[in-house]
Write a structure and sequence with these properties.
This protein is mainly beta. The protein folds into two domains: 31-99 and 102-132, Carboxypeptidase-like, regulatory domain (Immunoglobulin-like, Sandwich); 137-716 and 774-817 and 851-883 and 918-984, Maltoporin, Chain A. Helix content is 5%, strand content 50%. It has seven helices and 61 strands. The chain has a 25-stranded antiparallel β-sheet that branches. The longest helix has 17 residues, at 3-19.
Length: 985
Amino acid sequence: MNTRTARLMTAAIMLVAVLGFSLPAFAQQYTGRIEVTVFDATGGVLPGVIVEVTGPLNQTVVTDARGEARFLNLTVGTYQVHATLQGFTEYRNTNVPVAAGVAVPLQIKLAVAGAQETIFVTAQSPVIDTKKQGTATNVGLDELQNIPTARDPWVVMQTVPGIVMDRVNVGGSESGQQAGFMSKGATSGDTTWNIDGMPITDMSSLSSPFYFDFDAFQEMSVTTGGADAKSATGGVQLNMMLKSGTNSYHGNVKGYFENEGLQWTNMDPALAASLGSKTGSGDRTDQFTDWGGDIGGPILKDRWWAWGAYGKQDIRIIKTAGAHDRTVLKNASLKTQAQFTKSLRGSFTFFQADKLKWGRNADAFHTQPSTVDQSGVGGPNQFYKAEVNYVIGNNVFLVGRYAHVRGGFQLIPEGGINTPAWVDAGGVWQDSQSTYITSRPQDTINADANFFKGAHEIKVGFAWRKASVHSTSTWANGWYTDTYAANAGYPIFSGTGEYPYMSVAVNADYASDVSAKYYDFYAGDTITLSRMTINLGLRYDRQVASVLPSVEPAPSDPWIASVLPAITAPGIDNALTFGIWQPRVGLTYAVDEARKTQLRATYAMFTSQSGAGAAGFLSVATYRGFYMDAYDANGDHIAQGSELIQSSYAEHIDNGDYWGYDPTNPNAVPKSINTVGDYTTPRTHEIILGVDHELMPNFGVSASFTWRRIMDFNWRPVMSSSSSDGYINGADYVQLGTVNGTLPTGIPGSPEGSYAVPYYAVAPGTTWDPAKGGVYSVRPDYHQSYKGFEITATKRMSNRWMARLGFSVNSWREYFDSINGQGDPTQTLGSPNINGGYVVNAAGGSGKSSIYMTQPKYQIIANGMYQLPHNIDLGASYNIRQGYPMPWNYSTTGGFKDPLGSTKRLLLPSDFGWARMSGAGTLDVRVGYALHARRATFNFDFDLFNLMNSSTILGREYRVTSSKYTQIAEIMQPRIARIGLRINF
């Protein structure tokens, strides 16, 4: 090693060391690699061979003493490999696909030069990755473009074994909405979202801050488990790889169209009428359009490339009762890459996503003025990324990255931010709504390095990330009028509870300011032996959450401001801190010399990611307000300042109708009553056993068994001086009684017969101090267990066809080792409290509030395409899974006489998840025709979604106490056709 190289290596190692740590979301690899080993005809290795790869990136390497040449951090796509050595025949492979996180092993044999000077290789590269460490699905450009889908990442996710979504998207009917989902013992809150390998996860909602232009993707990668030390959580690791420029100009123009005239009907008119439909149909797609394009190519051939894209979706839905919901998604992307020297290359990426939504929350309980319009804060959400790659010789690879995300959104009432809101006697919002504005910026710096020596590949990585959230919520005038509360019997102390007296909910402006910093470090060694690969890794994560100072102004009315003044809430630095070491071990073994069959086993420990607002429960910035009365002198149903009855304030305060402040000392800044105990984040232990086999060229199958134990969950029990543990848990409850009844009959999948469900309350003599609040601590004697088996088969596009198949069986259950692991032992909708019962997750995605998910016992996925003669293509996608649970429940208010929670929603079946609706399955098909004209190809697509026009029930009213008990609430949207045109060049 010369002096200059030694200095560069020293500087690089110091740079990595200085950066110190990396973030919890830096998990998903977005690049791939090609690993070449060159042999002569006798099987001896050949050093000194010049190996060149060309494609999305160009690079040349000379094989080392082991005959090896490595190409790391390659942009996903198809490459050509060319190998030459004087005195030997040339090798040329024109079709080497590189996928995200995949190592492509190429074993090249060169013969002594003779009459044939070049060996042309037409076979595809191996489908078995000898360094595979887990379960991952890579969805490439062929599948993204040629399989009929609703064209968003959430739809792609539902085709991955082990992932279940909270909705069925028929031809884009649910696009533009954040879907909730579960995966292999992990909720959607542990998902890490990435663009080109950099984290974009909104650390407030732990979801994606963006919606996407489907045609900007070169590939999507979905990882659901494994021992890669870069993986931060046990949740889904989702990465969208954008296209890039190459040495050839290329591009795409696309347009898709649907409307109500292309849609069938699948709902009984009588049922539609009972749900408030005036047209005899259920939810429908009024219009769906998706258009845009991209173009890329060289700015300076072999040195500098660029690519850009623009796309727009317009999704208009008509709800059953006639309300309109419109979402517009606009995306713009730009990527440029440059090869500065043989060893140094860099790139810059810009991504912009704008979501505009009109009529959010449109339903039977919101008039159009009381719905809200959504848009970005100060403009569209944006992502900026800069990356530098540096190679030292053939054995040292260094990468440094920086990214900034400008995230957030605002919800503005259509009735206007200065228009008072009110609720009528039927509980329907009128005229306006509250205004919500949230800003969520984040910054990330990370770096990794790969060092090769002999059979070892040493990997280290470090990074830092900061995410902040600033949110405000305000009401016009500082209050809303609640006529519904008055007429429903709410205590109106100044009158009879009848019109013209009104109940008024007064609210100070709410402000929340929180932030979190994330650090982590990982190191690992990959040892490559003859047929065996051993992966050893260790990862350290540290998460620090803080509360920032915030100002909450008083309402504008002078008298209200005197009893609900402005406050400044102080900040709390490093309110929650947590750090953990996580080991990772992986082993693969090729059964045969040709490496067509491989066995693998991995062990990994993961921690969960904490949101930026994890410490928010310690903040004194709270929703502050109280109830009072008003006299509707002018009969407009809206309380004016002159109509407020000031004397009613004291009566409501005496009755406890206030929140978030001390009315006896309103100027005092509240003190946090919550504390932190033995806080940690949940951790997951995972074991995966698998086998991979190449059935034929370009066709591989894989089977995996996954076991997980999830433990160290946190909870916030109420502190108690009479409990032996210092807080109230299941041991402090006694049974009060039993709810008896009979389940409905005639509903497929539902149990029938009588039920007797016990309910509980805090035992007499148990004491607690409300001023002490709750304690954030580890939940004792409680864990969850996941077991799943999956089989996948992938056929690359060759010989006129492609396919991807998947099947999985899943079981995710919770266990209480003692009563101390429970709070209230009552079996409720949100907490079934069944030892050995299914883990339940309520739908958390946009637009869904009554769906409860458990891991499906079975799931089948199949999609594929076949190229017929005369340029006709046939494509299809089929998905079916076990139906959603039927959570029959009994709801009451105040009837259980439990001072810590008198309102409960009791689960009526004895085992949540046993009663199921019919399996939710969809079959979508495409007929396409390709017209070739010089460099351009015109693809005419005709898609049919929900081909069988199924009317699968997705939701019912399960509350025994509801007037709509057993009524169907939602069914799958009917069959719809989509017309598309794609022009590729």
